[in-house]
């Protein structure tokens, strides 16, 4: 036994020595940011995924530096660039120092079409959907009336005649219906409702530990992604048949079917399915989260509710019976948009994103090596009293002229060339829902202290039950 104990101790010492030596070799003598890579292999992934983002980042900013620190998360050596100066530096140097990076769980879920033997170069989906202008205001303006009618239909279908309802399930169904209509050109509520649970599982799996065993988050995400792909492949084939018969080609799916690369090659169906799944996921969870917590904060503040309702009823009064929202109406929803902004400040629908370092650079006196990842997060500024007066208070009026937050302190959609291309889509979708819900209902939040689960993608534990009062 003693010999075994000595052998075990010597092995442990040898492994520790190799780990330290490799770490030093990897560092190459550069002055790296302060911080720690945490445990071998897993780094600080557990703390990152299962602690609150504000605490994970805030504690390290206090301990190491308010500007930058190093860590190891999701298998990657990562520099977290903090505060408005960090945001500005990152957004101003896209493609010079940084390129987009998706964590490995995300790559696995959304790149099933790539074989390990010879993976094709990943196409820039953002560029693909920006080129034909689907997300430009003039294109979205044509879709706005559809957003309005879908919000009306869903509220009628799920809340009509009810005294008590849950917000989160409706918010998810509304946003997935909108996304399927916009991206796929389909409006089949039954077909879409079956997919909601799958998208929930995929959303959780995007930021998870890659352990593909039954019972794990990643395993459930893989199974859900397979089910979504199966449904999407069926939709793609239906779309191709409809296009062959002269059907309309006004949605993103139709564009992805016909678009070709410089060599004239079009995408395979498996690749289209993965890309569409990525778009639907992005256009689903973030919008649903914002609608849900907006309903919570407005339900808890009757004065704010009355202001939003007065603004929306003014717009409704200017319309003939049955007339739907138009682009010009959006400019009249200034206070409602402030309420949305304040919701996203207190409950960010997206905590942050990763970039890959293209070339070694210096920031705040430290060197970030090529190949490292950079993580930027809204949690370094959103609730900082230095930038927001009474940061814990829900105060939509803080965005009025003269009270606007300093530049680069409020960036819910990112910034620079990689600013979220769906920003305007999300704005219209949420405003269309707000317009309809305040016209029909006032509501009371039944559990103001309901626990919020999930930190990367927050959701109320009970789905935010409310008592409805019909107008």
From TrEMBL:
Topology versus the membrane: Single-pass membrane protein
PROSITE patterns: CYTOCHROME_P450 (PS00086)
InterPro entries named in the record: Cyt_P450, Cyt_P450_CS, Cyt_P450_E_grp-I, Cyt_P450_sf
Keywords attached to this entry: Heme, Iron, Membrane, Metal-binding, Monooxygenase, Oxidoreductase, Transmembrane, Transmembrane helix
Coiled-coil residues: none
Lineage: superkingdom: Eukaryota
Pfam families for the chain: p450
Subcellular location, record wording: Membrane
Cited PANTHER family: BETA-AMYRIN 28-OXIDASE-LIKE, CYTOCHROME P450 26
Family from the record: Belongs to the cytochrome P450 family.
Protein name, UniProt field: Beta-amyrin 28-oxidase
